[in-house]
Write a structure and sequence with these properties.
The chain is mainly alpha-helical. It has helices at 3-11, 24-35, 78-91, 96-105, 121-124, 131-138, 149-160, 171-182, 203-207, and strands at 108-112, 117-120, 197-201. It has 2 domains: 1-64, no CATH class; 78-207, no CATH class. It is built from 9 helices and 3 strands. The protein has a 3-stranded mixed beta sheet with strand order 2-1-3. The longest helix is centred in the middle third of the chain and has 14 residues, at 78-91.
């Protein structure tokens, strides 16, 4: 301990000491001086204000807003319907987890007879849909139509002029398609087949 500090503390109990502090403030000041402590906060010089960044010149380094997202809308042409159906089939393997979930939850299926491929109603019924836009639609990040199977079903049936129907003869074909699409067997194992409904696209409709 510093000798000066020892002497100061001894003076506090010595009635005859010349250097005895007069009060607590005096004692604190003397201790501060001996220990070379910084000045109390109220006497400190306030820090300089933060430097504000300069505005970019001629737009340099300015943040560019992302382009607006295309609105979600139902299919209004065979080309749009087939495009979304083909997107599902071509991208399913690289989005396997989501594709499997969609396949197992789907009750209404569009069957492309010419291409021997199926498409989930909720995916096929919206124009320009792929797995990236599907994920955004699930999070309600796309403007436009409500993203639900009922809306998709209405657009498909309105476009094709017919309704989804039960067709048990397509059950085995659907299961085989799902297994080949994802690359393993049993994708639709234990699925409730009695809830499946189908709408078939024939060649005449695709060329109409």
């Amino acid at each position: 301990m510093e000798p000066g500090l020892i002497a100061l503390l001894e003076s506090c109990i010595d009635d005859d000491a010349d250097e005895r502090p007069e009060n607590a403030d005096d004692l604190a000041g003397k201790i501060q001086g001996l220990l070379k402590l910084p000045r109390p906060p109220d006497t400190l010089t306030p820090p300089d204000p933060p430097v504000q960044p300069k505005a970019p010149i001629n737009g340099a380094n300015s943040r560019v807003s992302p382009p607006p997202l295309d609105p979600l809308r139902g299919v209004t042409s065979m080309q749009e319907l087939l495009s979304s159906l083909r997107n599902f089939n071509s991208q399913a393997k690289s989005n396997e987890e989501r594709a499997r979930k969609i396949i197992r939850q789907t009750r209404h299926w569009v069957y492309d007879l010419k291409g021997s491929a199926f498409g989930p109603c909720k995916f096929v019924g919206f124009a320009d849909l792929d797995f990236s836009r599907y994920a955004k639609a699930l999070k309600d990040e796309l403007p436009g139509e409500s993203f639900n199977g009922g809306v998709a079903k209405w657009y498909i049936e309105s476009l094709l002029g017919k309704t989804f129907e039960r067709q048990p003869e397509l059950h085995a074909r659907l299961q085989d398609w799902a297994d080949k699409l994802l690359g393993y067997e049993g994708v639709l194992a234990d699925a409730k087949q009695e809830k499946w409904h189908f709408l078939i696209l024939d060649s005449a409709q695709q060329t109409a």
